[in-house]
Amino acid sequence: MSKLLERLLGRLPVGWLQLTHSRTRFAAAVAGVAFANLLVFMQLGIMGAMSTATLAPYNFLDADIMISAEDANTLTDGSNVARARLFQAMTVAGVESGAPLFVGILEFKLPDGTNSTLQTFATEVADRDFLSAEIAAQFSRLTQENTALIDTKTRGVDASVFADLKDGKPFAFEVNGQTLTAIGTLELGGGFSADGTLFVSDQTFLRFFGKRSSGAPNHVLLKVADGVSPQVVAERLRSILPAASVQVNTLAEYKAADLAYQSLERPTGIIFGFGVLIGIIVGIVIVYQVLSTDVADHLKEYATFKAMGYEHRFFLGIVLEEAGILAVFGFIPGFIVSMGLYAGLSAVTSLPVYMDGTRPFMVFFGTLAACALSGAIATRRLAAADPADLF
Amino acid sequence: MTDMAIQTQALDHFFGEGEARKQAIFDVNLEIERGKLTILMGPSGSGKTTLLTLMGCLRHVQSGSVTLLERELKGAGEAEPVRLRRRLGFIFQAHNLHESLTATENVLMGLQVHGKGNAAKQMAAAHHMLRLVGLEDRLDYLPGNLSGGQKQRVAVARALVSNPDVIFADEPTAALDKVSGRNVVDMLKTMGRERGTTTVMVTHDNRILELADRIITLEEGRVVSDVRP
Questions:
Q1: 70-99 in B: which are within 8 Å (CB) of A?
Q2: Which DSSP letter does residue B43 get?
Q3: Quick one: which of A61, A80, A279, A374 could link to A40 by a disulfide (CB 3.0–4.6 Å)?
């Protein structure tokens, strides 16, 4: 390592030699940086899971525009929309077709007495082209009363429960005191608001949600004619629909707004974002402590180097070399342990906690930047190294 | 090029400010010839170390003039003294070796200040210098594994390895036995003779006075005696 650094730097790797002079101290410093990395990775992992879980249900929809209640922030919250808005929308130039989307939560009672919550989506069977191809292909079978497509990755439910279903055998289960029969499957897994997902027809939905009305879906989905811009049509819709009661967004806009709301306005998003910030601050403080102590411990040596004619940039180079070494050596164990914890957390919670392709680079370069910042702050102590004091 | 390595004129120096301001150097006028071994003597607090650091551009010149290697240090700014220091060698009473670097690496630091250079040549020069100070069997030792005398010899090797124009030494023989001390001063004398290296040394070691070309004595910040034995 020493030789490699010497070649890279074109000088003796003083920073490396200083850091590794005391192995115990070096190990403690690396452990500190690794811990900060771990904190950041875990928070980002959970934030990533939240984003994935937030956006995943949208993948089951195939629409260009969505009309929602004015107070709706996500796919699953907000007031209902009058079905009349669907008919109004159909009169607007460029709108080709529309469908109501109903959303609710059902409680899935397992044979062993435990419960799981199912995020339930419904529309008319005839409107199945507003659903993804995977769902639409099975949706026509839901004309049968009290039938559903069930999420085989529902959290807390052993996959064996759905074994027969996968072989084509219906699976009956109890929901809200009534029997629902799953005749098809989908795969999504648990999110932050429910343990799994369920697709039913609007008729089945209304039977299970007695207080809901077919005249008041949660959202209205619209498709625009070929070659027409959804943005242009959305603007036309905004001009005729009352902004006080409904909002009109393209599906892409609504997804982005939902994600921003989850990340920046809901407590969970803010907490995880704050966790990332804490991890970064912990990392900066740890590296600053290590580097400033190191500078203080070597003031006499630095003063000697100053007397020999070394310039300030040489000392800055040493401190930044140390910062870089701590960043690299701290990142590696932090990354490896995070991978293990991601797998564990994903297995325990069914949340999509995984390492995406860009996160390691982002965290690594963030660590380098944080370490460099700490190093730059620590170099202020170099001013105390006065070669005249050596005599 | 003049024959003088260092010249001081009407040099005063003060420490502290306001009522605590105290004058440490009073109207010092000196001309130090190239290639000579000049010893500064005097009791503690006489100003010899302050004078050494002023001549070695480790302190700003407040009043009067110091010319080092034909460069005026008064008002020289920040960069010029740093450049000049690369032409100097410093030997400190406390060796001030870098504890994380081996003897060879410490000596290499005296060379690398001049730039990257040829690594193999630098290594050979460092080893040669360590051999000259009798440490050929301690090349890869860390300072923690060397005796006080050995550390001081590494510090001497570090100061001399780049063939400086002027060497400033503060009690360089204090940690050495008589033979080693004599060897170090002999080496400085030889460098003066062969390479024209000027040495200004603060010492209380009477054993080496006979080797001096000039002995300047200070008391209370003033030159009270200037003899050439």
A1: 82-88, 90, 92-94, 96-99
A2: S
A3: A279
